Amino acid sequence: MNEQIEGIIKNIEKVMIGKREIAELSIVSLLAGGHVLLEDVPGVGKTMMVRALSKSLGASFKRIQFTPDLLPSDVIGVSIYNPKTLQFEFRPGPIVGNIVLADEINRTSPKTQAALLESMEEGSITVDGETIQLPKPFFVMATQNPIEYEGTYPLPEAQLDRFLLKIKMGYPTKEEEIEVLNRAEKSVPIDDLFPVLTIEQLNDLREQAKQVHVENNIKEYIVSIAQHTRHHENVYLGVSPRASIALMRAAQSYAFMKGRDYVIPDDVQYLAKFVFGHRIILKPETRYEGITEEQVIESVLRYVHVPVKRYVP
């Protein structure tokens, strides 16, 4: 594991017990320039994970609590007339930050959800016809509760496609939950976190991750997996070429985290369900049978031939 990244993960583990994999995947997305959708029931630590990551990086942290009455201007910002200067001045909204927590994103209207599209894809916002670049890194971690449906607006496919990874937190084990109680007995662990990496160092790591080599047969492997989702008997709509790019970038970041300057098939296989799972649409009869997106991706991986040629730097 890259030493600097290991430092971030260990810092997060002071707060998040038994969530190392979630921390690693979040950093994969951060290095790849993507965004993360955390989906799980309330109280398992989704918000705490985002806060711990932001404090570990010393990055500016903004939180948007999505509600049905939230407006796009509440997210992006608004221009206010200044009578002294006789001009309109832009007051940025909470979207202008390094790490943005979009809490319960499926509780707001599609119009407000769409306000995030440009910022997540282009790294910029448009106000009164003027494009404003967001700070780098710009990283959105959104949360949603899959249980409650009243008063919610399911994310459209175009919005889901903007998230590099979709992750489920899961409940802790008995031993992990006891440790959570021990740590929270006399203090709030998040208050004791300190930055272990600067923004400049993080941006440098992101540039290094882009230099990780992807052999042609690995690219063919990624494309073969993507194409097979488009013809799978249980899939109504397969992944797009954007998803193939997302899987390649995620694999580069994951390989870099593991201290390699090249991607191997294992990287692709491990990340495929997190990158492709939320990008496919299953047929209605498939859902009735209880088959999940993850199971479909696993069946695709079993079917597609794995390249065996090894890249030697």
From TrEMBL:
Which InterPro entries does the record associate with it?
ATPase_AAA-3, CbbQ/NirQ/NorQ/GpvN, ChlI/MoxR_AAA_lid, P-loop_NTPase
One Pfam entry name? AAA_lid_2
Top-level taxon in the UniProt lineage: Bacteria
List, for all copies, the residue spans of the domain called ATPase AAA-3.
35-165
Q: Which GO terms describe its molecular function?
A: ATP binding; ATP hydrolysis activity
Identify the residues that the record assigns to the ChlI/MoxR AAA lid domain, covering every copy: 228-299
List UniProt keywords, sorted A-Z.
ATP-binding, Nucleotide-binding
Protein's UniProt keywords contain Cell inner membrane? no
User: What Gene3D superfamilies does the annotation carry?
Assistant: Magnesium chelatase subunit I, C-Terminal domain, P-loop containing nucleotide triphosphate hydrolases
**What family does this chain come from, according to its entry?**
Belongs to the MoxR family.
Q: What is this protein called?
A: MoxR-like ATPase
What is the species listed in this Swiss-Prot or TrEMBL entry? Solibacillus silvestris (strain StLB046)
Lineage, top ranks = Bacteria, Bacillati, Bacillota, Bacilli, Bacillales
